[in-house]
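Researcher: Please translate sequence to C-alpha cells.
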Amino acid sequence: MEAETNSTQKKCPSYIGKAGTQLFGVVNKDGRVQFITPLTVTEEFIKNNGNLEQRFRFTGKCIEKGCGQWDEQELKCSLSGKVQQLTVSETAEISFCPIRRQCRWFFQDGNKACFSCNEITRNMEELLVNAQP
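Model: Translation complete:
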C-alpha cells in the first residue's frame, strides 16, 4: 500500500485508468459506484479489462492547470459543479469514500460534492464536456 498522500496534494476523483493510478470504485449493474479500498492499477489489469472508465472509478493526482476541467479564474475543478447540476441525490447521507480526505471535489465543495459522486463514471464526464456550447 502506498504511503498517505501529502495533505496539500489533492486527488482527482475522475481520473483515467492507467498503470500507477488507484482504482477506488466499481460500477454496479444499476450504474452506481461501489467504493472500495484503493488498489494500484497495473498494466495487466488494463490489458485484461475493456472500457475501463465506464466500469471503474480511478483517482490520481489533481494536475490543476494541466487539466481541461480546471477553472483558472476560480482556481478549482469545474467538473464538480457540473456533476452536482446533473444529479439529484435521493439521500442526505454521504457514502463511504476512501479518498475523501484528499479529494479535490470534497476540498472545494464539501458534502455537496459527495452526494452524487457515486453515480458518476468518466463516460458521463465526456458527455458533459461534449455538451458544452
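Researcher: Any highlights?
Model: DSSP finds six helices and six strands in the chain.
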